């Protein structure tokens, strides 16, 4: 379940107003919401590595509801999607994603059409130097059963995207990707008294799991304290964030 952006915004405003610490208008809140969601999303990867080290040293609790590595994987599940890549049609084609929000590549699958049958092979991902070296040797040259690829940047519709060069050239490509979260937005209509009225139809909720609601609120308050120039808000929010992080990792 995603986190309702109106719940987060009204909670942030309530805390600020209760303590008479100022006000965050919608435009500033939306900017903070995007930043904090990205911060939390990015934190999953070092956190996952840390928990994985616990697994390797048998220090991780792997019971059904207390497996932290599984919990982090679950939080990333909404951002996982099978994405098709399309060719630019060149002699040595580059394959680019059909969406522009790809964050990381997972398993790359190349599909080859052989005598009416569609054969799929997992692609061996290499860096550019390794790719050139394996292509030079007849013994290591990629085949349809064991294709190879490297990644590079490409510009598609003025946006920089990740592109794949694959050998041998496949008929189609699909990739299990991790996508960037959609930017949250608290949208509103202006009432007769000039007040902001929440518009749920045009608003965009946080894509993070509901368990991140407290973390979102705390970290938005931390940034809000910087904007309002109230060091006490920053200090209290930072202490709360540190306490929550310590509790999760201890």
| SSE pattern | EHHHEEEEEHEEEEEEHH
Helix content: 25-40%
**Strand segment count:** 12
Provide a count of the helices.
Answer: 6
Low-pLDDT residue spans:
none
Radius of gyration of CA atoms, rounded to a whole number: 23 Å
Count of discrete domains: 2
- Beta content comes to 25-35%
Summarize, please.
Helices cover 39% and strands 28% of the residues. The protein is an alpha+beta fold and 250 residues long.
Topology:
Elements: E1 2-3, H1 5-18, H2 26-56, H3 68-76, E2 80-87, E3 95-97, E4 102-114, E5 117-122, E6 124-125, H4 128-136, E7 148-156, E8 159-167, E9 172-179, E10 188-190, E11 196-198, E12 206-209, H5 213-228, H6 231-249
Parallel strand pairs: 6-7
Antiparallel strand pairs: 1-12, 2-3, 2-9, 4-5, 4-9, 7-8, 10-11
Tag the structure with descriptive keywords.
single chain; five-stranded antiparallel beta sheet; elongated; 2 domains; three-stranded mixed beta sheet; 250 residues; alpha+beta
Q: How does this model look, in words?
A:
This protein is 39% helix and 28% strand. The protein has 250 residues and is α+β, with helices and mostly antiparallel strands. The protein has 2 domains: 2-76 and 187-249, no CATH class; 102-179, no CATH class. The chain has a 5-stranded antiparallel beta sheet, with no helix packed on it. α2 packs across α3 and α5 runs antiparallel to α6. It is elongated. The model has no long low-confidence stretch (mean pLDDT 82).
């Amino acid at each position: 379940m995603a986190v309702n952006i109106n719940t987060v915004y009204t909670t942030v405003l309530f805390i600020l107003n209760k303590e008479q610490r100022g006000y965050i208008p919608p435009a500033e809140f939306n900017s903070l919401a995007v930043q904090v969601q990205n911060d939390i999303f990015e934190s999953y990867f070092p956190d996952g590595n840390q928990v994985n080290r616990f697994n390797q040293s048998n220090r991780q609790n792997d019971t059904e509801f207390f497996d932290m590595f599984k919990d982090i994987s679950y939080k990333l599940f909404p951002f996982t999607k099978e994405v098709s890549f399309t060719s630019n049609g060149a002699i040595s084609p580059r394959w680019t994603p059909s969406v522009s929000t790809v964050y990381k590549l997972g398993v790359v699958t190349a599909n080859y059409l052989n005598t009416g049958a569609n054969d799929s092979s997992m692609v061996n991902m290499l860096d550019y130097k390794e790719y050139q070296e394996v292509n030079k040797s007849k013994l290591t040259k990629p085949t349809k059963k064991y294709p190879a690829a490297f990644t590079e940047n490409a510009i598609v519709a003025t946006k920089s995207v990740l592109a794949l060069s694959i050998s041998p050239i496949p008929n189609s490509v699909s990739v299990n990707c991790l996508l960037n979260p959609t930017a949250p937005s608290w949208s509103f209509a202006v009432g007769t008294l000039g007040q902001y009225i929440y518009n749920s139809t045009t608003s965009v909720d946080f894509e993070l799991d509901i368990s991140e609601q407290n973390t979102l609120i705390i970290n938005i308050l931390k940034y809000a304290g910087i904007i309002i120039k109230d060091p006490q808000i920053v200090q209290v929010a930072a202490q709360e964030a540190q306490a929550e992080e310590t509790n999760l990792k201890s």
